[in-house]
Amino acid sequence: MSGLLIKESPLMIIPSLAVKIGLSEAVILQQVHYWLKSSKHEFNGRKWIYNTYKDWQNQLTFWSESTIKRTIKKLEKDGYLISGNWNRSKMDKTKWYTIDYEKLMNLEEELMVHPAAQNEPLNAPDADMEEPVLDQAIPEITQETTAENKIPYAEIIAYLNEKTNSCYKASTQQTRNLIRKRWKEGFILEDFKRVIDQKATEWKNPQWSKYLRPETLFGTKFESYLNQRSFGSHKVREEDFDLDD
């Protein structure tokens, strides 16, 4: 039996991701995700890891340092990889990295709209080439896909967390579904902020503050919350909540 067949820990990637962003990019992104899961470095609500290009090359020995540098820069340019400098000394230029998981969620939903793109084959690399070659399939961009990408999930949830001192995630599917429904009904970012502001003030009592959550605020009573003229003297009742949403 050959010692070249899965004797080491394999590098695994999702083929549909490789088709969409590139094989090299998918490998790097997966490797960053692997280390982020165990990272204890958290800044601005995100986990971060740090490595030099040489450090990455020591992990991915089948690529040159220049190939890794070029791939990382492309991921940064495309917005999937976020870089920063969280070193104690600003003279230290070691780069820190995290992943824009919200952008990946949008990409995942786009692939669900166009499932055929997941079945495109990956071309085998030529022996004399430094990098694998990928036959990229560009799915049809529909009006629905474009509209979906414009929904400010992250901004809405960040505002909710700020006003209610919560830690809700913009990537949760149920939360995204609620926001998407209201957005498709014609409501805009400012409407979401107004509802959050009104209810954060009205429901600040501990008895009701548990309802300052996406499933209540962005449910079927969203429009009535938005058009509520005054909440200063309004008596809170259970009927005011989307308890069954």
TrEMBL record:
Pfam families: Phg_2220_C. This is Replication protein. Residues 156-227 form the Phage conserved hypothetical protein C-terminal domain. InterPro entries: Phg_2220_C. It comes from Peribacillus saganii.
